[in-house]
């Protein structure tokens, strides 16, 4: 390794290890992942001098390596019939799916219809706040100006609307099958 790469390793070694540990939630897996990350860094050491933000570059390499490992495990587990159990749902959100099956599309459409129906059933003040924020994508400041209330009130209304939507979805026997366990 050249001097610059050694310096990068010394500076970011602990950070990468903790990121790997956070992703895998398993010390052995984290060490394996970290080793793969540093192998890739050494492989692409010619790029190090051109990178402006080393930490961001290393984080990207780490995340991509983790995603690749996860996809490989999932492909393998389809045949073995066991999914990796060390992963949690928020981590799975990091793994994008390129294509949706017809079943996924139908489920997404059904769920969208149900949520739209439930939003329509909300009290007008909550419905308006939700539509401004999620559909029209206004900022909290813009919503506060439009509704002539404080930002705190907008946040409270969004929170209460989401809580009410959740309660309504749980109470609906047809919607309960679409909710995560």
Question: What would your notes on this structure say?
Answer:
The protein has nine helices and no strands. The termini are far apart. Residues 79-83 have low confidence and may be disordered. The chain has two domains: 3-92, Rna Polymerase Sigma Factor, Chain: A, CATH 1.10.1740.10; 102-178, Arc Repressor Mutant, subunit A (Orthogonal Bundle), CATH 1.10.10.10. With 181 residues, the chain is an all-alpha fold.
The number of helical segments is 9
Oligomer: single chain
Main CATH class of the largest domain: Mainly Alpha
Portion of residues within helices: over 70%
**pLDDT averaged residue by residue:** 81
How many discrete domains?
Answer: 2
Number of E-type strands = 0
- Rg result: 23 Å
Class inferred from helices and paired strands: mainly alpha
Give, in order, the helices and strands.
HHHHHHHHH
CATH architecture of the largest domain: Orthogonal Bundle
Largest sheet, in brief, is:
none
Low-pLDDT sequence parts: 79-83
Question: What is the distance, rounded to the nearest whole angstrom, between the alpha carbons of the first and last residues?
Answer: 48 Å
Supply database-style keywords.
Arc Repressor Mutant, subunit A; 2 domains; 75% helix; mainly alpha; elongated; single chain; 181 residues; Rna Polymerase Sigma Factor, Chain: A
């Amino acid at each position: 390794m050249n001097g610059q790469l050694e310096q990068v390793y010394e500076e970011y070694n602990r950070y990468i290890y903790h990121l790997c540990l956070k992703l895998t939630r398993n010390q052995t897996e984290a060490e394996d992942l970290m080793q793969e990350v540093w192998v890739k860094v050494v492989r692409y050491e010619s790029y190090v001098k051109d990178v402006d933000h080393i930490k961001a570059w290393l984080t990207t390499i780490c995340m991509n390596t983790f995603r690749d490992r996860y996809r490989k495990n999932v492909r393998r587990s389809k045949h073995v019939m066991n999914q990796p159990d060390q992963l949690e749902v928020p981590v799975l959100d990091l793994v994008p799916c390129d294509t949706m099956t017809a079943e996924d599309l139908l489920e997404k459409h059904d769920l969208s219809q149900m949520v739209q129906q439930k939003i329509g059933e909300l009290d007008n003040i909550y419905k308006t706040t939700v539509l401004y924020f999620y559909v029209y994508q206004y900022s909290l400041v813009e919503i506060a100006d439009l509704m002539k209330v404080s930002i705190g009130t907008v946040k409270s209304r969004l929170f209460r609307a989401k809580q009410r939507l959740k309660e309504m979805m749980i109470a609906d026997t047809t919607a309960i099958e679409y909710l995560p366990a």
